[in-house]
Design a protein that fits this description.
- 28% of the residues lie in helices and 15% in strands.
- By secondary structure, it is an alpha/beta fold.
- The protein is globular.
- The termini are far apart.
């Protein structure tokens, strides 16, 4: 079933990322925390992180989360996991430019919530910190054009990536406007290739 936001995220009492991470590291009756990293660790109107635990994760960045959760990946996340493993990584971490859940990007809020972005950025810094050489797969597609605040969010992510020495990649064909390909509809054996995110930002 599709996820359609029921309220603006400014009306929610947001769980900070640190609190969400602490809960995600606490045993859950719903899924195996030794396998999954899920924050918040319950289904809600937003999601900071969803992925598998490992020593060499591929960090994938989409636009915004949909319905996926541990042991119930959607087709996008199944593709992300397949590409990660096919490129030699032992795990994947799905992150998003904006943390609000919405199956259709058209349902994303028109005005961004600074508090949600701030906590989402904390989540990104955390996943960058757990890898010695963070590998980041830009995978947001042309959907980034849906809201004017999304490019600015990406700029903040790129700045954070610079602090941690992140290497950026893409997979599949780049759009005419230079946007990196969305994870869906990629070949099962698709290989990652370097993505010049700085040049991309100059034309974004």
């Amino acid at each position: 079933m599709a996820h359609v936001p029921t309220v603006a995220t400014t009306e929610l009492e947001l769980l900070t990322f640190q609190d969400a991470l602490e809960a995600a590291n606490t045993p859950s009756p719903d899924y195996d925390i030794q396998k999954w990293l899920y924050a918040p660790n319950f289904y809600s109107e937003y999601r900071y992180l969803l992925g598998t635990r490992g020593n060499d994760p591929l960090i994938c960045i989409g636009i915004n989360p949909s319905t996926a959760k541990p042991d119930a990946l959607d087709n996008t996340l199944k593709s992300v996991e397949r590409i990660a493993l096919g490129n030699g990584y032992d795990s994947f971490l799905m992150f998003n430019v904006y943390a609000q859940r919405a199956t259709s990007p058209d349902d994303m809020e028109k005005v961004y919530n600074p508090a949600l972005h701030r906590e989402n950025l904390e989540a990104f810094r955390y996943i960058l910190s757990i890898s010695g050489h963070p590998a980041v797969w830009a995978a947001w597609g042309a959907i980034i054009e849906k809201r004017p605040y999304l490019p600015e969010c990406v700029r903040d992510l790129v700045s954070a990536g610079e602090e941690f020495g992140a290497s950026w990649y893409c997979a599949g064909a780049i759009t005419k406007k230079g946007h990196p390909h969305h994870p869906l509809y990629l070949r099962k054996d698709e290989k990652l290739k370097p993505f010049d995110v700085k040049t991309y930002l100059e034309q974004l």
